[in-house]
Specification:
Layout (H helix, E strand, L loop, with lengths): L1 H12 L4 E6 L16 H18 L3 E4 L15 H16 L5 E9 L10 E4 L6 H15 L9 E2 L5 H5 L4 E8 L3 H7 L2 H21 L1
Parallel strand pairs: 1-2, 1-3, 3-6, 4-5
Antiparallel strand pairs: 4-6
The structure holds zinc ion.
Zinc ion binds next to loops.
Length: 211
C-alpha cells in the first residue's frame, strides 16, 4: 500500500511538467545520412514517437513539433532555404509557446571520419537550467546505453538556433553518429531506437525529479 501511495505521489509530482520533443529535420530536409543512405529525419521521428509514448504512459504532458515526415514551414514559401528558415522559426515558436516546459531536440550526428561514435548533448547558456539538463541526459547515456561514452556536454552559441533562443531549458541530443557504420546500423533498428528513447526518458525524469 505504501508503495502505491509513493507511486501516486511520484506521478502527481510531475503531472504539471510539460515536455516538448522535437524530431529534427523532416520533409525535404533529411538531415545527415548514413553510408547506406538512411536519413536522420526518420530515425529522429521514430525515437520521438517512442519517447512520447513512454512519457505519456508515465504521466507527463507531451507536445511535439512534428509527428510525421514534414517540414513545418509556413505554406506558400518557395525555395528550400526559405522553407528551412520558416521551419526553424516555427519550431522555436513551439519551444516558446509554453512556460515551464522542458525542450529536447533529437538529432543524429555525422563526422568526416567513420570511427567516431556515441551520444553527445549540446546546450546554450542563455537558459541557466539547460546545462543541468544536458548533464543529466549525458549521464543517462553513459549509465544505461554506452558505458564507454566519455564525451562531455558542449556549450554552443547562436549557431544552435533553438537552444540559443529557447526560453525554456533546452538540449540538443545528438544520439549517435550516422557516419559510423556500426552505430548507424544500430540506430536504424526498432530495438535500439527503443533503448535510446528509454535513455532519454531516464535523463529527463531524473532532471525533473532533481530540480
Ligand atoms: Zn540533425
Amino acid at each position: 500500500m505504501r508503495d502505491i501511495i509513493y507511486l501516486q505521489k511520484a506521478i502527481l509530482s510531475h503531472i504539471s511538467d510539460l515536455v516538448l520533443v522535437d524530431s529534427a529535420h523532416g520533409g525535404a530536409d533529411g538531415g545527415c545520412t548514413s553510408a547506406e543512405g538512411v536519413a536522420e529525419k526518420g530515425i529522429n521521428l521514430s525515437i520521438l514517437l517512442k519517447l512520447r509514448d513512454i512519457l505519456t504512459l508515465s504521466g507527463y504532458q507531451v507536445e511535439v513539433t512534428r509527428d510525421t515526415d514534414v517540414s513545418i514551414h509556413d505554406s506558400g514559401i518557395e525555395g528550400l532555404a526559405n522553407q528551412k528558415s520558416s521551419d526553424m522559426d516555427n519550431r522555436l515558436a513551439v519551444f516558446n509557446k509554453y512556460e515551464n516546459a522542458l525542450c529536447l531536440s533529437i538529432h543524429q550526428n555525422q563526422f568526416t571520419q567513420p570511427q567516431y561514435h556515441g551520444a553527445q548533448m549540446f546546450y546554450s547558456a542563455t537558459n541557466p537550467s539547460s546545462e543541468a539538463l544536458a548533464r543529466s541526459l549525458q549521464g543517462s547515456f553513459r549509465e544505461l546505453l554506452q558505458s564507454d561514452n566519455d564525451r562531455e556536454i558542449k556549450q554552443c552559441g547562436k549557431e544552435l538556433f533553438l537552444c540559443y533562443f529557447s526560453e525554456n531549458p533546452t538540449v540538443m541530443a545528438e544520439c549517435g553518429f550516422l557516419s559510423n557504420p556500426d552505430e548507424a546500423a544500430l540506430l536504424n533498428t526498432d530495438e535500439y531506437q527503443t533503448k535510446v528513447a528509454l535513455t532519454l526518458f531516464s535523463g529527463i525524469s531524473s532532471y525533473l525529479s532533481g530540480k
